[in-house]
Amino acid sequence: MSRKKVTFVVIPDASSSVRRLTVPSYLFAVGLALVPVLLLFLTLACLVLYRHYDTNADQLVYLERKMNDTASRYEEILADKNTSIDYLQTKLVELTEQASAIQSQLNEMDELEDQVRELMGVSSEAKDEPQASALSASAFGAGGEDIPASDEEFQAYLDTASRTLSALVPTLGGIEKRLQDMKADVSEVQSKLDATPNIWPTVSRTISSPYGIRLDPFTRKARFHAGIDFSGNVGDPVYAAADGVVTWSQKDSAEGKNIKIDHGDGIVTRYMHLSKLIAQVGDRVEKGTLIGELGNTGRSTGPHLHYEVVKDGVQVNPLSYLPADSESESNEESEESP
């Protein structure tokens, strides 16, 4: 076999010379033997490549489907975000209009505060906080076709809204401080009002003897009457005309059982000729508190309450503090001496 040879003749074309390739016969036999091996190798290689291709094809289909699903979710998320942005923009516009409405109400509150302070006799405070100036379009007539706002237009609107809302912060802070100050002023005015003897000390509104010059019921001489007399029945309730502290509660030969209340700010009220003393020295009484009962004790000609108001040590007309609904009578049989 080693001495035998196999010759291959190659004829390219009719005009070319013939080419011969001589190969030992054993090499040809080995080549023929390797052909099945090569075919098997090629077959296995094709199977491996096909398997790899099939696997990759399935993976490619899976990835493509996953990518489509992801794209769909992204589109839904984007649509939701656009809806949310539109909703937030709408809410922002509504909040801005509400802020403008609040500013309008705050301006009305400023005017009301000035009126309240004027009624209380308290000076108005200066208001130096910035005022928001944006107006609500819904408060006026509106029409025409609406189109979506551009990013630049909405940004400009957003800047205006931001300035409007920012202006409300110091405004509200100023309002809160002024309300606190006004509350303190109102409390002070209320305290003064509570300490002012401006209610009737008796149920009766009948004045039997007024404040001023009169004839003394005992001497029949002209004398100054330092208070006013309220007629009534023994045991009728007598009330504190204002908040204060009882500084006197005892019996006197001329004034009978009597009570004195200090209301502060130089104001004192006196209640004389009582039949019963209820409030005692040191008691803190409120306006309208029952302090005693009407009587006829001391230097008196009949049941009545002698009521005085003293301001800075000087007797003043109690009627200047009382509501104007009295029924004045001239009943000199129920008068007291000065």
Secondary-structure topology with pairs:
Layout: E1 5-10, E2 19-24, H1 25-120, H2 151-194, E3 206-209, E4 212-215, E5 222-225, E6 228-231, E7 237-239, E8 244-252, E9 256-264, E10 267-277, E11 284-285, E12 290-294, E13 304-311, E14 314-316, E15 327-328
Parallel strand pairs: 3-15
Antiparallel strand pairs: 1-2, 3-6, 4-5, 6-13, 7-12, 8-9, 8-11, 9-10, 10-12, 10-13, 13-14
Describe this structure in words.
- GO terms for molecular function: metalloendopeptidase activity.
- This is M23ase beta-sheet core domain-containing protein.
- The protein has 338 residues and is of the alpha+beta class.
- 41% of the residues lie in helices and 24% in strands.
- Helix 1 (25-120) packs parallel to helix 2.
- Strands 3, 6, 7, 8, 9, 10, 11, 12, 13, 14 and 15 form an 11-stranded mixed β-sheet that branches. Strands 1-2 form a two-stranded antiparallel sheet.
- The protein has helices at 25-120, 151-194; strands at 5-10, 19-24, 206-209, 212-215, 222-225, 228-231, 237-239, 244-252, 256-264, 267-277, 284-285, 290-294, 304-311, 314-316, 327-328.
- Among the domains are: 5-76; 206-334, Glucose Permease (Domain IIA) (Distorted Sandwich), CATH 2.70.70.10.
- The relative contact order is 0.09.
- The protein is rod-shaped.
- The termini are far apart.
- Mean pLDDT is 80; it is low at 132-142 and 326-338.
